[in-house]
């Protein structure tokens, strides 16, 4: 499975989140041979749960795994420090990112710590977040811990 | 409320987790004036959910908050990178840690980024984790992403 195919799964999750009235960020965790282990999307609005960023939702959906070194975390947006910390702690081996134009998290830090990072600059991801942030700046700031 | 009083809440959560057959790590999020916003404990075993570390469970229990700068995250154990990333991303202002003898996470990194860190070296926390790790090394390694 190529990064371009993997990101489609995360984009579908982001669109689901948007359709639910949520923040349009999606993610998926794949095994090295392209098997989908779990996917998810940001659920701050839908479940009133600030701990469910897209990456943590996908990680949760994948259930308990004994070894993440050969897995690939795919996310529509550069992972924030919370989600970057997840990737580092669990030794997730690779990261595919839809875009980092609307937000830059910890992906360079992860690359420095040995994670294989593939930044796609996917126009669909950029457009979804650009539109969402313009329409909902307060919600977006809440989601990334930016106080008023 | 003093750090010693705050850590008691996290220790109680860790004990609850242990009684449930889980990993004995507890946490609590307090406002600056000592109001408990949420508390929780590691639920990997109980709910089969690897995303619920003690700190993320407490953060989740506190619900949506608009500004974390004056809050205090209290945890029985030095926070792993996942939970350290949470503290950094949401600009949680202060961290009270029960102990860092059995595991060292990202608390120095957080201090470097302006978080007020108070490391207590609480004997109850050390004893709980020492005993748990000795009895359940595989489960502990799974929880911190250490592969076999």
UniProtKB/TrEMBL annotation, chains A, B:
Pfam families: dCMP_cyt_deam_1. Residues 1-117 form the CMP/dCMP-type deaminase domain. Signal peptide: none annotated. It comes from the Bacteria. This is Nucleoside deaminase. It comes from Mycolicibacterium crocinum.
